[in-house]
Amino acid sequence: MDESQRLSELIGEVYDAALNPGLWPDTLGRAGHFVGGRGVALFFKNASLKTGGASYSHGIEPRFKQLYFDHYIKLDPCTTGQFFAELEVPTATADIMSYDEFLQTRFYKEWAHPQGFVDFMASILDKSVATIAIFGVHRHESDGIADPESRRRMRLIVPHIRRAVLIGNTIDLKTAESASLADTLDGLSAGMFLVDAAAHIVHANTAGHALLKTGTVLRAVAGKLAARDAESDRQLSQICLDSAHGDVAIGVKGIALPLGGHSDKRYVAHILPLTSGSRRRAGTAYAAVAAVFVHEAGLDRPSPPEVIARAFKLTPTELRVLMAIVEVGGVPEVAVALGVAESTTKTHLAHLFEKTGARRQVDLVKLFAGFSNILVPP
């Protein structure tokens, strides 16, 4: 099987998982194999770095997964650096810190190395004030560290995983039978439209009809779903047309299509093709080529670590030291966690004092707490 065929089948499985979450573990395993890695996960991390959780994973022993979220999430330098990453861009360990430095960390010695993991390549799927959602692939020692080929393959699959995850979050279903998609999704708070290749509406749920009635961002023109904003409407029409040709044809367009209009509220559309995989039954039953999910979007605000780093012009290393002080404790504990000498930690700490104006470590903790309280809504 050549790469294009493998990619096509994998994308189909990813989109099927958007409606049937039980497919995610095996799909992640195949995605990891395509990219080049053993341990794969969809997980989220709290912006304060205190908590997180795995939505789905494959190839990571349960006890190590539990250990990660119980303890090592606070010591993982790789995901700290993800707060600066752009959406969908593959980021490996070497992009965040020197590899030799990584090998000295407690995270590598106590969590990654015992599993044979030598590198971690990840992409941000979604980012908010409170959390970041990550698709990550752990490279095994038999795979070696991330190389250009693995990054290229990651870029091919990540946009589709992002679309599937965002749609899954929008519909928030534990299970969904594709054959009764319209009936199943009628109760959603998000607007849902089943459309044909010309964007004609063949079904809309209650929330969808309400959006059309207000006419602020969407309208029905001769039975066709149309966006108020001309550019959004052009993109929506093209994506619906492309959806008729399958999962690969839709490409990376319309993953999160912003909808402008006559409203102070911001809306976004996610388009799921229905012409391949187990979704084909729903498409055939309703003469639809795509499902369009529309919901109100939150404000795009950066996370506290990102804001602090930019406000005080902190380097990635200085941010790691700051977060370690907040989460781990004093200089000796931070030095052990980061795998560096205490003298090195003290040097970075001095830079933090100079840049932030803090005089004591407790002042840095209060500084971070203050930024978190300002940014994260109650």
Task: Explain what the structure shows.
Residues 173-179 and 374-378 have low confidence and may be disordered. A hairpin with a 7-residue loop joins strand 9 and strand 10. The protein has 17 helices and 11 strands. It has 3 domains: 3-171, 2-Layer Sandwich (Beta-Lactamase); 178-296, Beta-Lactamase (2-Layer Sandwich); 304-375, Winged helix-like DNA-binding domain superfamily/Winged helix DNA-binding domain (Arc Repressor Mutant, subunit A, Orthogonal Bundle). The chain has 378 residues and is α+β, with helices and mostly antiparallel strands. Helix 1 packs antiparallel against helix 2 (24-35), helix 1 packs parallel to helix 7 (148-171) and helix 14 crosses helix 15. The strands form 3 sheets. A 5-stranded antiparallel beta sheet has the order 6-5-11-10-9, with helices on both faces. Strands 2-1-4-3 form a 4-stranded antiparallel beta sheet, covered by helices on one side.
Task: Give the helices and strands, then pairings.
Elements: H1 3-19, H2 24-35, E1 39-46, E2 52-58, H3 62-70, H4 77-81, H5 99-103, H6 106-112, E3 117-127, E4 131-140, H7 148-171, H8 181-185, E5 191-195, E6 201-204, H9 206-214, E7 218-221, E8 224-227, H10 230-243, H11 247-250, E9 257-259, E10 267-273, H12 280-285, E11 290-296, H13 304-311, H14 316-327, H15 331-338, H16 342-356, H17 361-375
Antiparallel strand pairs: 1-2, 1-4, 3-4, 5-6, 5-11, 7-8, 9-10, 10-11
Helix pairs in contact: 1-2, 1-7, 13-17, 14-15, 14-16, 15-16
Attribute tags:
single chain; 378 residues; alpha+beta; Beta-Lactamase; Arc Repressor Mutant, subunit A; 3 domains; 5-stranded antiparallel beta sheet; 4-stranded antiparallel beta sheet; globular
